[in-house]
Amino acid sequence: MTEPTTGQDRQDPYLEHRRLLFATAYRMLGSVADAEDVLQDAWLTWHRTDRSDVRDPRAYLVRTVTNLALNRLTSARARREKYVGPWLPEPLLTSPDAAEETEMADSVSTAMLVVLETLTPIERAVFVLREVFGYSHAEIAETLDRPEPAVRQIAHRAREHVRARRPRYDTDAGRRAEVTSRFIEACAGGDLSAVLELLAPDVTCWSDGGGKITAARRPLYGPDHVARWILGVLAKPQSRDVVMERAEINGELGLLMVLGGTPVGALTYDVVDGRIRNLRLQVNPDKLAGVRG
Fold first, then answer.
1. Phi, psi values for residue 243, rounded to 5°
2. Are 90 and 290 in contact (CB under 8 A)?
3. pLDDT band at residue 8 using 50, 70 and 90 as cut-offs
4. Residues with Cβ within 8 Å of residue 292, at least 6 apart in sequence
5. What is the distance between the alpha carbons of residues 250 and 245, in angstroms, rounded to a whole number?
């Protein structure tokens, strides 16, 4: 069963708020596939609901999606304990107007999604609803069926937790674009010295292959280790035709690794003081739907 698409159905509150609902589910789960599954379940719930009992369709739908995502997140955490190698969020192609509002871009960045993974499911739900979408403590309490004082405490704890772990990065788009161009050129030329110049002294690289594609099973630390590993991967026979293409991924400039016109990897990174500090390479084929269009 799929979502409706007729002209009349487009007036349905579910479709009217679908972008908000996906944004909520994706930030809750860090997974495009899981977010879409949650939205499908929410649509089925919505169309089985007696609308005469719904005073505020938007609030009802957000509540439905949030609680469905909470249930899925709890089970997903158990699965991730058995995950092969580092777990990274599923990347998502965005554009200046695709993340709802420009000021919300940071909340969907890969770096932020990684930090959100360190929250408990209920902390993550409260943080997303409060800090990203601006819901009041009272509204969140109603959504999660919890006392408002408890929600306030959870919100404070989650905000402090995220603040302490959120990585520092340059916000200058021009500098990021310059670093990106130099990185593409250095990697394409196999220039170890040039790559080393672009990496911060404390650089770390995570790669997520999910046990399906060869990737580093543990984080890589230090410029020399990271640079040699990246160039080594690109030099392999199966990677020689891979092209790096600039793309906006999760609200910021990143790189797609494209082979034969199909993205086979997505690279996001933090730029600090003109150098790349954190690299996150997603190559698990099951987690690339969001960059394949």
1. -115, 135
2. yes
3. very low
4. 262, 263
5. 15
**What b-and-e string marks burial along 244-256, b requiring 16 or more CB atoms within 10 Å of the CB?**
beebbbbbbbbbb
* Helix (H) or strand (E) segment spanning residue 112: helix 110-116
Question: Does 261 have pLDDT greater than 50?
Answer: yes
pLDDT digits (tens, 9 = 90+) for 70-99: 999 888 777 777 888 899 999 999 975 544
Indicate the burial class of 272 (C-beta count within 10 angstroms; 0-12, 13-18, 19 or more): middle
Sequence letter at residue 163? R
Q: Count Cβ atoms below 10 Å from residue 218 Cβ, excluding itself.
A: 9
Largest CA distance in the chain: 67
DSSP for 13-78, written as a single string:
HHHHTHHHHHHHHHHHHS-HHHHHHHHHHHHHHHTTS-GGG-S-HHHHHHHHHHHHHHHHHHHHHH
Structure tokens given for 49? 């609901």
Residue 133's alpha-carbon distances to 76, 99, 109, 127, 193, in angstroms, are 23, 12, 15, 9, 44
Higher confidence at residue 54 or residue 160? 160
Containing 276, the helix (H) or strand (E) segment is strand 275-282
| H runs (alpha helix) in 118-244 | 121-127, 137-144, 148-165, 173-188, 192-198, 223-235
Rounded to two decimals, what is the model's pTM? 0.87
Beta strands across the sheet bearing 262-272: 220-221, 199-208, 275-282, 262-272, 252-259, 243-249
Tell me the residue type at 253: L
Distance separating alpha carbons of residues 124 and 118, to the nearest angstrom: 9
The secondary structure of 91-103 as a DSSP string is P-B--TTTSSSGG
Residue 145 carries which side chain, given as an amino acid letter?
Answer: D
By the 10 Å C-beta count (0-12 exposed, 13-18 middle, 19+ buried), 5 is classed as exposed
